[in-house]
């Protein structure tokens, strides 16, 4: 008897797995839902803090760093659970609903007594951490691991393109729509709408998502927690040089990314002077123009041409950072277009490479390793650097409650641009290791 919760596998004449239009729809709809919520956390949570709590970059720094740890720990916990069960669907089903509830609870912090800012800051950071921990269940160890389960090496370029597009699509829609919505209904009602959307998405997962049929349980006989913490001996990275190289590239590039990204919306509003709604437009429209480049990259990635893509991505990221702060709308949009394209293309290349390196029985736990290098290390290093620069060299400003603080200026973006050339070092090392691996493979064949 067929298991109705398992996908049917289809292959082309070359024996490669192909995905149906329905399965592509699964990826687009479920993935976009998650990315819209991450857009809220990455873009509008910091703006909420400036507007409703205090315009203090250190609060955002604590939120980003600790929520990154919570998200990554969640990836290891939920990813291990999914690997042990041989299922992703249940945690996506439960995770999206629970995630929606945590978004609403975060919005309630606006109504807590503001007289003790230290306690209020702790509560805001804690609420963000809970949201991130549950989000890891639904999105990272659930959805992202599922996209790895249902694809194979040789057809991951297109999947990588779509997965790379989804965060940007979420940022675009979040920029174009959410700013205008917040202007109309304010933050708490907006968070209620977002939470209800996720709960509705959980219902959609029930009908749309099925597990890969070749996903089998992987249970460590020593128990669940031993399996969770076993990954921290990093034997996987010790024995898989290329996977280690990819993780290091992730870390170095996204340290630079985190120097500015969490502060970007506040920069547009409080330094450049755009309204909340127009800031969303300035952020969103250039990213729409950048989207086609990810699909162009997918053909190169399926042919293994990762490194040219990464070199070009670093170059255009630097170019974008060097002009985005100039107080001219055209140049600001051009800067966002350039570093947005660079971010999308290098993220896409790294995701495809990493998925190709992952052991099949550890897709869930491997997402935890990715989170460690893609989220935790960059957010714990890059975001505090950005906050330090803002507090010492930023533009003075006040929020709607008259609380004084500082917003990002050109120093933030120039510092990130100066950091980015460091990414070229691990890319060169990865290319060398990849060529060695291919030569060894060719000799063995």
Key words describing this protein structure:
445 residues, Growth Hormone, Chain: A, two-stranded antiparallel ribbon, two-stranded antiparallel sheet, 16 helices, 3% strand, globular
Would you kindly provide a written description of the structure presented here, covering whatever features stand out?
- With 445 residues, the chain is mostly helical.
- It has one domain (19-209, 228-439): MFS general substrate transporter like domains (Growth Hormone, Chain: A, Up-down Bundle).
- Helix content is 77%, strand content 3%.
- The protein is built from 16 helices and four strands.
- It has helices at 21-53, 57-85, 89-107, 117-149, 156-208, 224-230, 235-239, 241-260, 264-271, 276-290, 292-302, 306-323, 329-357, 363-393, 410-419, 424-444, and strands at residues 10-11, 17-18, 395-398, 404-407.
- The strands form two sheets. Strands 1-2 form a two-stranded antiparallel ribbon. Strands 3-4 form a two-stranded antiparallel sheet.
- A hairpin with a 5-residue loop joins β3 and β4.
- α11 runs parallel beside α13 (329-357).
- The radius of gyration is 21 Å and the shape is globular.
- The two termini are 40 Å apart.
- The mean pLDDT is 84.
């Amino acid at each position: 008897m067929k298991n109705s919760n398992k996908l049917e596998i289809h292959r082309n004449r070359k024996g490669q797995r192909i995905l149906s239009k329905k399965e592509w729809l699964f990826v687009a709809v479920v993935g976009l839902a998650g990315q819209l919520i991450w857009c809220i956390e990455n873009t509008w949570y910091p703006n909420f803090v400036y507007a409703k709590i205090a315009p203090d970059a250190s609060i955002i720094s604590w939120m980003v760093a600790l929520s990154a740890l919570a998200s990554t720990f969640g990836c290891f916990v939920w990813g291990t659970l999914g690997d042990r069960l041989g299922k992703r669907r249940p945690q996506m089903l439960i995770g999206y609903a629970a995630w929606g509830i945590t978004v609403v609870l975060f919005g309630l912090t606006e109504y807590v007594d503001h007289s003790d800012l230290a306690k209020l800051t702790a509560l805001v950071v804690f609420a963000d951490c809970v949201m991130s921990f549950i989000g890891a269940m639904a999105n990272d160890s659930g959805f992202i691991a599922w996209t790895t389960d249902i694809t194979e090496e040789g057809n991951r370029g297109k999947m990588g393109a779509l997965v790379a597009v989804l965060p940007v699509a979420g940022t675009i829609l979040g920029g174009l729509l959410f700013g205008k919505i917040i202007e109309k209904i304010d933050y708490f009602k907006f968070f209620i709408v977002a939470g209800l959307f996720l709960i509705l998405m959980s219902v959609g997962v029930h009908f749309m998502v099925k597990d890969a049929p070749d996903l089998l349980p992987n249970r460590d006989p020593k128990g669940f927690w031993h399996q969770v913490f076993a990954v921290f001996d990093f034997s996987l990275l010790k024995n898989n040089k290329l996977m280690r190289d990819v993780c290091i590239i992730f870390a170095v590039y996204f340290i630079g990314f985190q120097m500015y990204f969490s502060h970007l919306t506040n920069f547009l509003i409080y330094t450049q002077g755009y309204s909340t709604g127009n800031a969303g437009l300035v952020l969103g429209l250039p990213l729409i123009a950048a989207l086609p480049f990810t699909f162009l990259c997918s053909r190169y990635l399926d042919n293994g041409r990762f490194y040219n893509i990464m070199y070009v991505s670093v170059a255009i990221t630097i170019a974008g950072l060097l002009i985005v702060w100039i107080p001219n709308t055209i140049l600001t949009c051009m800067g966002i277009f350039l570093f947005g394209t660079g971010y999308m293309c290098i993220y896409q290349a790294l995701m495809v490479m990493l998925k190709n390196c992952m052991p099949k029985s550890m897709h869930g736990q491997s997402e935890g390793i990715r989170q460690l290098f893609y989220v935790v290390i960059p957010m714990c290093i890059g975001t505090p650097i950005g906050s330090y620069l803002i507090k010492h060299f930023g533009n003075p400003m006040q929020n709607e409650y008259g609380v004084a603080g500082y917003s990002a200026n050109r120093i933030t973006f120039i510092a990130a641009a100066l950091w980015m050339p460091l990414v070229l070092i691990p890319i060169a090392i990865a290319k060398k290791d990849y060529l060695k691996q291919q030569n060894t493979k060719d000799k063995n064949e």
